[in-house]
């Protein structure tokens, strides 16, 4: 860079966390922000672009926005219109494609009607209707032999192998909250999420980020790691949204993450599959296949879909997509949190990697908005 630059805030990372905080600081506090981003684009893992065939795709895996937090939905609504979209997922079980999360429709798709009705009754007697029950809880609590059979069947066919592929761990080795993200749903509702607000930004995520960052008090420096500008930029305070163990140069040891490899395939037909995502718990090395046109509603010739291959995370070689929700890693994270506290608020940490939390997009936005209200606005 050469020339020294002076700003009020340096923000590391242009994903949802960094972009929302930049927008708030620039527009509400009228202070100057520089965002430094190591990738060649804004948007973090939500980045989307038009591929060579003109299909809008998500470079880092499929992203569907869903939330119950009206303030998050309304806040982002200032920067994008929404395309209403309800995500549907089918899982391949015993050679059939059945709704996931597993629900009463899945039951009837897999078992003869009289037996499905018996299993349905057992579920209703035990838990009631329109109730979500995590698979690990059903397995623990099922006494009735029909329920026991069903719990083992769903566990084996939907969760066990998928989770081994995705995490290289069994469901029991992870925090129960991981498999509880996709609970058994005692209902006929086939949607993947039941949140009040669901959709995708009408003109894409990248467009939403451009609007968020389009403010005279915000400058964005792409293709640059924070380490490269040390000493070149003067700032009063720093917000860091990258991996917290990277920030502290792994003084307490490396936090583990899970990575993915994506395979994009273009197909000349109008559609490749009937729904947005098909999960393959038991076959192949990939976990799921997502066809973007279902999500985006784009109309064009041909279609592009993506296969997700879970990978070990290797620092410097691939991307740390998922913190691994497991007690011992949470304890390790806490050591870094203590280091962060010693900085007395001069550096603020937030985001999926900085908080080492399995945040969905809405949770990352909610975290950023509350950090702004509680620790920045009032400081
Ligand atoms: P990120 O998006 O990871 O942004 C952090 C940014 O910081 C990155 O761009 C990184 O390059 C940059 N950075 C890090 N360190 C440095 C450094 N030292 N110098 C410069 N730059 C740096 N959520 C949903 O709600 N719905 C979904 O359907 C969904 N699907 C997902 C699918 C996949 C495969 C994955 C991996 C995640 C999905 N998510 C989904 C979660 C969503 O991606 C996150 O909630 C969101 O991206 C978190 O935003 P963030 O800003 O905290 O982190
Ligand atoms: N899961 C599973 N089978 C499925 C779908 C999900 O075992 O068909 C488990 C798996 O452990 C997965 C977790 O539930 O990692 C959360 O799934 P989700 O779809 O929320 O994962 P993400 O979209 O965050 O990758």
TrEMBL record:
Start and end residues of each UDP-galactopyranose mutase C-terminal domain: 158-358
One example GO MF annotation: UDP-galactopyranose mutase activity
Domain of life: Bacteria
Record has Flavoprotein as a keyword: yes
Cofactor: FAD
Keyword 4Fe-4S annotated: no
Protein name: UDP-galactopyranose mutase
Keyword entries, A-Z: FAD, Flavoprotein, Isomerase
Entry similarity comment: Belongs to the UDP-galactopyranose/dTDP-fucopyranose mutase family.
Pfam families in alphabetical order: GLF, NAD_binding_8
Species: Beggiatoa alba B18LD
Cellular component, GO, one term: cytosol
